[in-house]
Design a protein that fits this description.
773 residues, mainly alpha, 5-stranded parallel beta sheet, elongated
């Protein structure tokens, strides 16, 4: 054995000289060390039980049994447990009687030595090594010929984070002529942060790791610190840590240490917000050693940034720092411009440079680029987005604080870009809606500035809220208005007109979300205060009265709504004139309230007049014109004019799909209306299909408890009843009745309708059973 090792060392030295054109490589390890510690380095590391990676282990076990000319790359960002998972597979392979070799990437020379040891252990003859020594054969060829002829082995090559350096001689991995090849009789498993398929070539099976699911992550914490709290408390801390295995192990080790200040999951989780720098963000004195840095949350991602910098990607680090200042939410890709990075770096930045930085960060798993899930998202460039892991974001922000004392410069550059982006989406109309939805969570940054900048920030937030209202994104609009209202109450006082406007807008957003009771309370308070401060005839006071009426209509209080709407319509005609948009809005609102009372003739007449006026004043494709057409169809449906109602609803649905998009709440409402009209015509199959589609979309967009969603479920049940599917209809009616009772109350008209519908479905079901008997 000693003689073989001597031959290996000499052969490697000569081969290295040949590759370098006669220039000697770094000094090879001595024979004594090669016979001792180097042999030890081929042993796998010890690993405890791995949680939450059962699917990955099953896949790897299958690859181990049948490599079929492939190798595996376990890849992803630092801290995801790639090495731990590889060690778990290695342990299973050993139990199965396979030869396991654990190699740690350091340099190409070290790798050559270790792979030669592996080949020798797999039976490589000394004569073959001699051919490589004298230059008649390529040493990598000799090694892989032997590995190809051997079976039942697993070679783990750990931490190959710089594949371009593997070689030999700068040979790209994807060419499969260097030290990494897919042709062995066993399985080669590589762990790396590089997730780029082009790096590894077509014969590589890339297994990209993601953070652990919360239940599995919670179990990791319980394994490490079983006395630190309940499973639910462990899951809450695991969610706060984003399921990142490195952070979970760090937290678990801390909690299990008797001298730690925090000994429970809850205390640790609560302390993270204030003490992240000392708990997970503590610097390690040996962080300059990449092997150490990989094991420390504070430094593990800096290893990837250092590698990107070494590759010449100088914008990757500042780009990640900029992203870390934004909210923990998807970020529109359109926000990241050369101008933004030029503002923080002081350098000339090109589009190509920004794209290279994004590609580099994604390649090393430091940011995610969610794939579009629908054809609509694919077609909308402004829906492109990226996402940071919560701890990557927090730790990167912490690193920025340590690197630069002038964070105001970074925040100022971001707020300027956010303001510019809001004005861009406001001017873009419907095409800007996807980006507007993505921008909304990040506007919190605009309030972290001096008082003189806050007025501009309020205008920017209000502008984006208006865009979100147009888009029907009421939940996002509500969050912005809540933020704006809190800020204005604090800065301007609760009675300031701007504060009251924010409260009115907040209530309107609640109504759009279907939260009618809360909306009524806020609108009533705002109406009282505006009446006292501005007077009963002020346009803002009239707006509050109209908004209160609309919210009451949502609660089924149609009589109160009619009274308020009639008074508001009279006042607006007197003050604003009969053709003012707000006057037309009051007339439409009164007609809707009358429709709720069953006064379909009056409602139809008012809706028809409003539709004609809006077409003339606003145009045929204005969203309010389309709403009037939809409202007239609803009134005609109440009159039993189902054919006319179906035609109007179909036309409105087509126009709203084109103008507002297929997922806008108004479009979904028209689809519901068309289904109802078709039901009236006895077209139950078409009505059921439309109702089923609408129910799915409204559940996803508006939520399962929204009044419109419940209405679509009731529509579907009614269509199924018409098709004779009484059991399914009864089940849906029962669920809808329970939900409407809980959300709207037992006496709401919709609830009463559901009770009657359920009774009819049950009666039909009983009658059908009697006929069968």
């Amino acid at each position: 054995m000693f003689g073989v090792l001597v031959a290996v060392s000499v052969g490697l030295l000569l081969w290295g000289r040949r590759l370098d054109g006669g220039t000697p490589l770094a000094r090879l390890t001595s024979v004594d060390r090669l016979a001792g510690s180097r042999q030890g380095s081929l042993r796998r590391q010890h690993v405890e039980q791995v949680r939450g990676r059962e699917t990955e282990l099953t896949f790897l076990a299958g690859m181990l049994r049948r490599p079929q000319g492939r190798f595996v790359v376990l890849c992803g960002a630092g801290g995801l447990g790639k090495t731990t998972l590889a060690a778990q597979l290695a342990a299973q392979a050993e139990e199965d009687g396979r030869a396991v070799f654990w190699l740690r990437w350091r340099t190409s020379v070290d790798l050559a030595q270790q792979l030669t040891q592996v080949a020798v252990a797999c039976g490589l003859p000394e004569a073959d090594l001699e051919l490589a020594r004298v230059g008649q054969e390529s040493l990598p060829d000799v090694i892989w010929q032997q590995l190809n002829s051997s079976r039942r082995w697993l070679v783990v090559l750990d931490n190959v984070d710089e594949p371009q350096a593997v070689g030999p001689g700068g040979e790209p991995v994807a060419h499969y002529r260097g030290w990494i090849r897919p042709y062995g009789g066993g399985l080669l498993l590589v762990t790396s942060r590089d997730t780029n398929r082009q790096t590894w070539g077509p014969r590589a099976e890339l297994l990209r790791l993601e953070p652990l699911a919360v239940p599995d992550a919670g179990q990791v914490l319980l394994d490490a610190a079983p006395r630190a709290g309940t499973p639910e408390q462990a899951r809450q801390l695991a969610a706060r840590l984003g399921g990142l295995p490195l952070a979970l192990h760090a937290a678990g080790s801390y909690l299990a240490t008797a001298t730690s200040r925090y000994r429970t999951f809850d205390h640790y989780r609560q302390a993270l917000d204030a003490e992240l720098p000392t708990l997970l963000g503590a610097q390690h004195p040996d962080a300059s050693d990449p092997d150490v840095a990989r094991t420390v949350v504070r430094h593990t991602w800096e290893v990837s940034l250092d590698q990107l910098t070494a590759e010449g990607n100088l914008l990757a680090r500042p780009l990640l720092r900029v992203l870390s200042l934004l909210a923990q939410a998807p970020i529109p890709l359109s926000l990241l411009t050369p101008g933004l990075l030029a503002s923080v770096t002081g350098e000339l930045v090109t589009v190509v440079g920004v794209e290279a930085a994004l590609a580099g960060l994604h390649r090393y798993g430091l940011l995610g680029l969610p794939e579009p899930t629908t054809a609509l998202e694919v077609a909308q460039e402004d829906s492109a987005q990226l996402l940071l892991h919560p701890l990557v974001r927090e730790i990167s922000a912490l690193a920025l604080t340590a690197e630069d004392n002038d964070l105001a410069r970074w925040r100022r550059a971001l707020t300027d870009r956010l303001t510019e982006a809001v004005h861009d989406v406001a001017g873009a109309g419907r095409p800007g809606w996807p980006a507007a939805c993505l921008l909304a969570p990040h506007l919190v940054l605009l309030f972290d500035h001096s008082p003189e900048a806050r007025a501009d920030a309020r205008d920017t937030v209000a502008t984006l809220a208006d865009v979100l209202n147009d888009a029907g994104a009421y939940a996002l609009e509500h969050a912005l208005h809540q933020q704006l209202q809190d800020t204005q109450s604090r800065l301007l006082g609760p009675d300031h007109p701007d504060t009251l406007t924010s409260r009115a807008n907040l209530a309107a957003a609640l109504r759009g979300m279907g939260e009618y009771a809360q909306a009524v309370d806020l609108h009533r308070r705002t109406l009282e205060e505006r009446t006292g401060i501005l007077g009963p005839d002020h346009p803002d006071t009239l707006t509050s009265r109209a908004n209160l009426a609309a919210a009451l209509r949502g609660m089924g209080e149609y009589a109160q709504a009619v009274d308020l709407d009639r008074r508001t319509l009279e006042d607006r005609m007197r003050i604003l004139g009969p053709e003012h948009p707000n006057t037309l809005r009051s007339r439409a609102s009164l007609a809707a309230a009358l429709r709720g009372l069953g006064e379909y003739v009056q409602a139809a007449e008012l809706h028809r007049r409003t539709l004609e006026d809006r077409m003339r004043i606003l145009g045929p494709e204005h969203p309010n014109t389309l709403r009037s057409r939809a409202s007239l169809a609803a009134a005609l449906r109440g009159l039993g004019e189902y054919a006319q109602a179906a035609e109007l609803s179909r036309q409105t649905l087509e126009d709203q799909t084109r103008v507002l998009g297929p997922q806008h709440p108004d479009t979904l409402d028209s689809r519901h209306a068309l289904a109802a009209a078709l039901h009236g015509l006895g077209e139950y199959a078409q009505a059921a299909e439309l109702s089923r589609q609408t129910l799915e979309d409204q559940t996803r967009i508006l939520g399962g408890d929204h009044r419109d969603t419940l209405r679509s479920r009731a529509n579907l049940a009614a269509a199924l009843h018409g098709l004779g599917e009484y059991a399914r209809a009864a089940e849906l009616h029962r669920r809808t009745l329970e939900d409407r009772t809980r959300i709207l109350g037992s006496q709401h008209p919709d609830t009463l309708d559901s009770r009657s519908d359920l009774e009819r479905a049950l009666a039909a079901l009983r009658a059908g059973r009697r006929r069968r008997v």
